[in-house]
Amino acid sequence: MNxxxxxxxxxxxxxxxxxIPVIWVAINSIxxxxxxxxxxxxxxxxxxxxxxxxxxxxxxxxxxxxxxxLIT
Length: 72
Hints:
This protein is mostly helical.
């Protein structure tokens, strides 16, 4: 096996392994809470919701925290 090919393959595998949890979190962020906490995970059959983001900004004042982080 060529050294350059092995390095490229290692880089691709590393990126894929890094992206899997990021994609999983992104998908779960738009799933309803009942679907996330279900005993049997569903990957396709759910209705996307932005409720978690709405709660983040309304309940926890996330916009203020981001603003404070930007000015300091």
